Amino acid sequence: MSGLDCRLSVAPMMEWTDRHERYFLRLLSRRTLLYTEMVTTGALLHGDAARHLQFDAAEHPVALQLGGADPVALAECAAMGDVWGYDEINLNVGCPSDRVQAARFGACLMAEPTLVRDAVAAMREATAKPVTVKSRIGVDDRDSYDDLRDFIACVADGGCETFVIHARKALLSGLSPKQNREIPPLHYDFVFRIKQEFPDLTVVLNGGVPSLDAAMSYLDRVDGVMIGRAAYRDPWLLADADRRLFGEPDPKALREDAVVGYLPYVRARLAEGVPLHAMTRHILGLFNGLRGARQWRRFISENAYRPGAGVEVIESALTFVVQDDAMPMRRVAVI
To answer: What is the pLDDT of residue 86?
Structure first.
């Protein structure tokens, strides 16, 4: 089993799960495992590594997801992730984008299980942190259960003990990344069978999980569940995760509390030159389903891009929302 508690995690999502999003989600759940966006080995070895690797200590537990195909480069980047203090190093073997395919990594690596095995082995030599793999159930015509089983068995020989499996195959031509998240049918049964056949491995189910209730319903079949865009569109679904999954008090009782808790972080990043809209885009869905949610989203969207915009935009937007239908519309005192 993995050294990290993986019962619930939020998927790595390009242009979504940046450090601002992770900090905000951590205000809602102390225990949910968070992941970075995929960071390529080239970006770390030949670019501004600090920009990609910097994160707030409050984000723990947090995993670094790497994209690449060269075991030597992946090992070097895994060591960098260790130095920066990440709790887990994850290898992306599931992204189907054209850019990723051109560099021969992501989902296309499912067709090269021995290369993935060797990469995992090299990464494990470079770090004491858990090295995990996030994959699809297959790629193109390599999409049978036997193909998946053989892939898992081969990569496990490299020392990987934790597999996060998106229960759709990837089609590398003819579908966009968005379509690859929606069109190939889900086969949760493949993931459940992997856990049965490899009981000593940690198996995490990903793909199409819409809610915390749904996630909990699968935990008698797998070790963990990873939620993706559902948590981004409606982050409040994480707010009861600590109590329900981990038996601990939830950090915030009200959505308003989460917003107020986010403000000191926003102020600090503004002082560093981060634009307000880079941080407010992650909180637009917080009040979904409540009166005033549309006005909340609209006010922030129209004002966060203005030159010099600061936390007063968030404070003003709070006046449009209420916590539930029984509560009257009121102004909120923000410190």
So the answer is: 98
Same domain? For 59 and 197 the reply is yes
- State which H helix or E strand residue 167 sits in: strand 162-170
Q: What is the pLDDT of residues 273-312, one digit of tens each?
A: 999 999 999 999 999 999 999 999 999 999 999 999 999 9
Catalytic residue among 6, 77, 95, 108: 95
Structure tokens at 160: 């990987």
Q: For residues 98 and 212, state if they share a domain.
A: yes
154 is catalytic: no
pLDDT of 98: 61
SS3 label, residue 112: coil
For the stretch 58-69, what's the b/e string if a residue is b when 16 or more beta carbons lie within 10 angstroms of its beta carbon? Answer: ebebbbbbbbbb
Same domain, 223 and 282: no
Q: Between the CA of residue 306 and those of 11, 117, 277, 302, what are the distances in Å?
A: 31, 49, 9, 8
Residues 177 and 306 in one domain: no
330 pLDDT tier (thresholds 50, 70, 90): very low
